[in-house]
Design goal:
This protein is mostly helical. The protein has one domain (2-294). 61% of the residues lie in helices and 5% in strands. The protein is built from 13 helices and four strands. The chain has a two-stranded parallel sheet. Strands 3-4 form a two-stranded antiparallel ribbon. The radius of gyration is 19 Å and the shape is globular. The protein starts with a helix and ends in a 7-residue tail after the last strand.
Length: 301
């Protein structure tokens, strides 16, 4: 109910507020919509409800305003949990080796450098656009479900976008959809890159990779301002979620406390700041077996 109430207040504010209050309302509404994603994320892990059909229905509903296809996201996210910080298998901000990078088309190199640098905040949009909507990229047993979710998102957009344009024009579409959606993706990009990316957290090849080590020591706990934690349901208490994805969001703090009592030397904790994001964007570029990462400059690129 917290997220529904926050999103409702946000959209009401966008409808009645004077123009100079719109930017903070975009930030508030987009952050509240990120709470929708977090609840849908729990649905994907079957930790929202004990009933599979409830998880699937609620997950689809919560993801629709974000234009996110639920089943394709769940399939890819499960792959991330099964291959956390495994080089060339993890699909969440895994770095390229220099060999892979050099074999890429020029436009992909350009985008990789942008998203690995100061424009990390667009990474979630790139991931959303390139990973989830290709039904045929999924195994045969998953293609029908992926197609269902993708078609649902398309139908939603076909209904909602014209309704916004007819009632409030292109300005209304920017106000009610685009700006909150961009804020949502800002947080998604920021959260997900911080979850497993630090200059001293390694991605490993299969010969040296350990799933247990990756879940415990390769997952980052990051403290954000309280209002972000509240609206986003503690998604950044991330280490216990990787230790056991069955833990619902409202038990993550309790689980983190238990991990700190028993495994504190193995945990990675930090605090959100623009300096932190600058460090990640300036240093975490190309995979390096000895030092975790090289910068583009160090790699001679």
């Amino acid at each position: 109910m917290t997220s529904v109430l926050a999103v409702t207040i946000g959209y009401w504010g966008l409808a009645v507020a004077p123009w100079f209050l719109l930017p903070p309302l975009w930030i508030f509404t987009g952050t509240a919509l990120t709470g929708f994603f977090v609840l849908g994320h729990d649905c994907g892990h079957r930790s929202f409800s004990s009933n599979r059909w409830v998880n699937d229905i609620v997950g689809h509903i919560l993801f629709l305003p974000l234009l996110y296809p639920f089943y394709p996201w769940r399939f890819k996210h499960d792959h991330h949990h099964q291959h956390t910080n495994l080089l060339e298998e993890d699909n969440a901000w895994a770095p390229f080796t220099i060999e892979i990078y050099q074999g890429l088309p020029l436009f992909v190199k350009v985008f990789y450098q942008l998203l690995r640098g100061r424009m990390w905040w667009l990474g979630s949009i790139a991931h959303w656009a390139t990973v989830h909507f290709a039904d045929n990229a999924f195994p045969p047993g998953q293609q029908e479900q992926a197609r269902f979710s993708n078609n649902l998102v398309i139908i939603y957009a076909i209904i909602v976008f014209p309704a916004i344009l007819v009632t409030s024009g292109i300005g209304g579409w920017i106000n009610f959809f685009l700006m909150p959606w961009l804020v949502y993706h800002f947080w998604m990009s920021t959260f997900t890159i911080v979850h497993h990316t630090m200059p001293d957290i390694p991605f490993r090849t299969r010969s040296t990779w350990s799933l247990a080590e990756a879940q415990l020591s390769g997952s980052v706990h990051c403290d954000y301002p309280y209002w972000v934690e509240f609206l986003c349901h503690d998604i950044n208490w991330h280490t216990p979620h990787h230790v056991s994805s069955a833990i619902p969001f409202y038990r993550l703090r309790q689980a983190q406390a238990s991990l700190e009592q028993n495994w504190a030397p193995h945990l990675y904790k930090t605090k959100f700041s623009w300096e932190l994001m600058k460090t990640i964007g300036d240093k975490c570029h190309i995979y390096d077996e000895q030092n975790c990462y090289q910068t583009f400059q160090q790699a001679g690129l």
